[in-house]
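Quick one - first record:
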Amino acid sequence: MILRTFSLSKFFDGLKALDRVNIEVEEGKITLVIGPNGSGKTTLINVITGFYKADEGRVEYKGEDITNKPPHELYKKGIVRTFQIPKPLKKLTVLENLLIARENPGEGIIGALTKAYIPKEKESVEKAFEILEFLGIEHLWDEEAQNLSGGQLRLVEIGRALMSDAELFVMDEPLAGVAPKLSHDILGRMRELCEIGKTFLIVEHRLDIVLEYVDKVYVMASGRIIAEGKGKEVIEKPEVVEVYLGA
């Protein structure tokens, strides 16, 4: 397993938003977390990625305890978090948005004097175009991000994450505001990335689209995991049906 949580808990003003949550994320797979509003899904991924601090329990990545490490440290370890609302720099082009996501994009003093940065810059541009082509948006390379659709912005965000050479992508509602056809395209790209060893932990509510693409599903309610398993088998469990109907 690339990621595990052990009895992970989080409190807000006495409210237990996470209640001893245990999940396992397998490398090269897509793991989905679902549940009604307020079930703790986003809190879970915020704690895993260091945006919130855990009050109890721990998080392990590749066997290393990463509990409460800040997001920038987790980024260096290969964990990238994306958000429900994409956050590109809207005045920059699509290509520029990908290039600034590369770690240490600046040339540095020595590089500026020797022009040693030029090969690295060329390599970054080539990598960015490869990613844009893979995502099917290479034709938008010089378009300002502010002119893109919601689905295109989502692809740019995935592209920025790929520029970082991340291994684990933690995504909050990657299909939010995206048309069904493009949603399938995005999920198809994610499956292709799994084939080369990338891993996804996602929160998503559009079950009619996402279930056929994922490998494992965890269902949350009231801060706890109430069910786990594969696709439609999970959502047909009585305890899951009851939670959704009650919500």
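second record:
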Amino acid sequence: MAYFSEHPQYDEAIFRDNFRMSRRLFTKIVQEVTDTSPFLQQRDDCTGQLDISSLMKCNFAIHQLAYGSVPYSLDEYLQIGATTACKSLQILCKVFMNLYGEEFLRKPTYTDMKKLYARHDEKHGFPEMLGSIDSTHWSWANCPVAYRAQFSRGGHGPDSFILLEAIASNDLWIWHAFFGVSEMNNDVNVLRQSLIFNDLKSGRAPDVSFMANNVPYKRGYYLTDGIYPQWSFLIKSIKKSG
């Protein structure tokens, strides 16, 4: 293959641009998931011949995750059928959750929040800030025709999209994400439906206190824009009561 042969056609810089990671990290992930899943391993098929390699199965599955590729988009290049492509993606996602879920698919701990505080203070000058929160439009190019009315909105053109609210750390650890249909979901309505403040309201959020203008606060805050004045007041009230 052009990326993984002994003398690859594309260098490390192009690999990182296309795969959003280094070649060494990619091959490490492939090794770990194939050690866990028999389906992703290269085996003999019904004719006794070796089937598709583990590298190709993982390559196409990750392409589907990263770029939204349809199962048959790379069949001529990778020689992989749509059924195998779909199953590889499903199994890869389950393996990812089993292997990496405990470390990467979790909420910030006390230690994580301290690191977030320090990073935002150093980088942006906002002490004790957990992150910036907002929603954006995630384009859905392959939205079925029957659903297009639900996933589009006047003033945003005819293209379908899904609303996404997400929070990520500086090293791209996404520790909160909420998806919703467009309809009447503006930023405030998305925030109202998401689960980001549930732990605060239930008292389960870690107490990582700080002092601002001689006022003690038990927990950090999220930076928002001018459309959130009422929510900013609510967040302050939650922190004071908590």
